[in-house]
What we know:
Blueprint (H helix, E strand, L loop, with lengths): L1 H7 L11 E8 L3 E11 L4 E2 L6 E2 L3 H15 L10 H4 L15 H5 L19 H5 L21 H13 L3 H10 L7 E2 L6 H5 L4 E3 L2 E4 L39 E3 L1 H12 L3 E2 L2 E2 L3 H7 L4 E2 L14 E2 L4 E3 L17 E8 L2 E8 L4 E8 L13 H8 L1
Antiparallel strand pairs: 1-2, 1-16, 2-3, 4-8, 5-8, 6-7, 9-10, 11-12, 13-14, 14-15, 15-16
Helix pairs in contact: 2-6, 2-7
Amino acid sequence: MLLAALILAATPQTAPQPVATVRVAFDRTGETNVEAAGFADLAAQRPVTADDPVRVASISKLIVAIGVLRLVEQSKLDLDADVSAQLGWRLRNPAFPNAPITLRLLLSHQSSLTDTIDYVLPLDADMRAALENPRAWDAAHAPGSYFRYANFNFPVIAAVMERATGERFDRLMDRLVLKPLGIDACYNWASCSPATAARAVTIYRAGQPTKDDHKGVAPACAVTPASDGSCDLNQWRVGTNGAIFAPQGGLRISARGLARIGRLLLGGGTLDGVRLLTPRSMALLETPLWTYDGSNGDTIDGFYCSYGLAVTFLPTARAGCRDGLFADGRKRIGHAGEAYGLRSGLWIDRSRGTGVAYFATDVPDAAGAHSAFTPVEENLATR
């Protein structure tokens, strides 16, 4: 346990170090560099590897967008249609009852939904009832008029996807995106094998496990349990609770798997000879839908300043924006993740044909040297 203690220790001269860091650099043809340090499981002293699945937080949203665009290509979804028609009930901000909510608005965080109420719903929850609470909405800004990052957008998107296909969200994402790309990953743990779940990277904050402390076995419950503590996935009903599989942040995927997503984007929708997205869909992914103008959104202290269909655009030359993660002025697209003490990132530089995927666990909240990202993220992105 001495090494574990050294990793977690902090002195006045040395900042606390993450429990685990993994970084995979890549180009269009494959990986160019792989680094892994620290532990996937401190208690077991299991070293982390680039193949271990980790909850990558909000990068999950970008992969959801890829799934949505595949359904758009199949004419099963329309980015600009009122999602109420798919849901089978009227979704509205009570303060703006005549303004329809669309997938384009949900994916770009311009729907006027907020995270004021809890978006992590139990297995047996009625998502419709939750969204009928006026507190779930921004009463000051109509849909389409303001950017406010809100995780609750993505359970709604998942419910729409389920209603359009009749398939359970996690299985749908496996069919649409993960399996065609040869990626062993899952939203929450239900569609991952027990062997994959047993290799989970435990997430820590201040040395204490916060997520996926499985102790070398699959979790007892693959999702958030029902309100009575039970965990029977037969309770799933199409489109009634899009939060079950945590589309906003619950993707468990390895850094190598993330690099494959990055290579798909670098390849214009094609990876290793498999075309997953059309050029039109790629153009949609690569187009910002909102850019901060000084008053049209909440940047979260300069972290978000340009956003599209679950895609972040860096950097933004605007007062109040501190999104220059790479500190070189070069344009990049991708997404960051932050939850439970983890930080993650997937970024590509299309003009150079390069990218990087990374994550770290037990990352202290601290201001970066040149951006709104943490020093750990700045280091993993740029070294």
